[in-house]
Amino acid sequence: MSRIYIAGPMTGIPEYNRPAFFDAAAQLVDRGHTVLNPATLPNGLTQPQYMDICCAMLRCADAVFLLEGWEQSAGARAERALAEKLELGVIFQEEWLGDTVERRKDESAICNQQICGL
């Protein structure tokens, strides 16, 4: 299966939105994916340090999974932009139940079975 990085809002949300990250991670693992989850990082780092680590994690992924509310997060928007630049698959949580995955490498391709096994 695929390596999938989870991106979403954390700053300003109770528990840094970790429950949403862990719930998404569990669902992705249940489908056989390897999950790169920034919610597992320790407290106490600066925003630039978190972004350095998260960008490195994203560069190891095949796709990014965007949690609901990602649009309100500067970090998640930056991670999506990096994913697009790297031509990774993009999975929107709100569309995931419909198994919709946007593939940026080829605008006309939908990545269902080949990359994400959805």
From TrEMBL:
Pfam families: DUF4406 (PF14359). Gene3D superfamilies: Hypothetical protein PA1492. InterPro entries: DUF4406 (IPR025518). This is DUF4406 domain-containing protein.
